[in-house]
Amino acid sequence: MSTNTFYPIGHLGQAWGPAQLTQWRARQHRQRSYDHEVLQAVESLRERFQVEPYGEVVHGGERFPLLALRNRWAAGRPLVLVTGGVHGYETSGVLGALRFLDRHAAGYEGRANLLVVPCVSPWAFERIQRWNFDAVDPNRSFCEPSPAPESAALMALVAPLRGQFAAHIDLHETTDTDESEFRPAKAARDGQVFEPCTIPDGFYLVDDTENPQPEFQQAIIDAVERVTHIAPADGKGELIGSPLVARGVIRYPLRELGLCTSLTGARFTTTTEVYPDSPRATPEQCLAAQVAAVCAGLDFVLAQG
Known about the structure:
8-stranded mixed beta sheet
């Protein structure tokens, strides 16, 4: 019996052990197909891009190939990484990365070297889950040694290129289930008290506290605003518990938190946060917002010369 008020697994003051992890896994059910929605889409792009397998994750006997795509690279062009699905449940990040490749990447051929990883966490994508099979958050696991094989594989892919990237754009969502499921689950997993928060209604970005790039963020906000609305600050002047540093922009210490956008050493980094549960945004707008963010980021980098 749980003694956690907000989540049915665990006891307040006690972190989960193997029994609680088994209980949590039993609640996770396959709801969509990585093969159908991601791998088949990647296969359809094979004639236009080089498809690069960079590893495999195995969870509970299931095997998931990890794939990256790149255009034709040449020396002297800025190298830009685009990642989606670090949190597998954040649908528009995965589909937005694929749409960018299909509809927009050709416009950057000969101008930018692109490396796109559309779905970092396939097991979580299929379960519409934030964590991986071990109840580990991949987006807090870009550190050495990484506790998440998904994060470790991406780190290994990027390692030979670290320091060469001009930009990294990581595509995410903030959803109502962050508050109804994932944050309560995290508190329960860690044996802590759940403290409610307010989900921002609209799009916002996460910049780097240690390497702020306000003009880069502003260029993306300006582009996305033509597609969907930007999240206003709450009554405390914050978004998701962090002070607003510009309209639609907050900052996190990326490296300290082990976030995905810390892994390249790029000058320009951002994490997009789309709000798919807003009554003011459709699924199409969410996808368009992710694509607009990638294109605006690339355009800004290319304008730097």
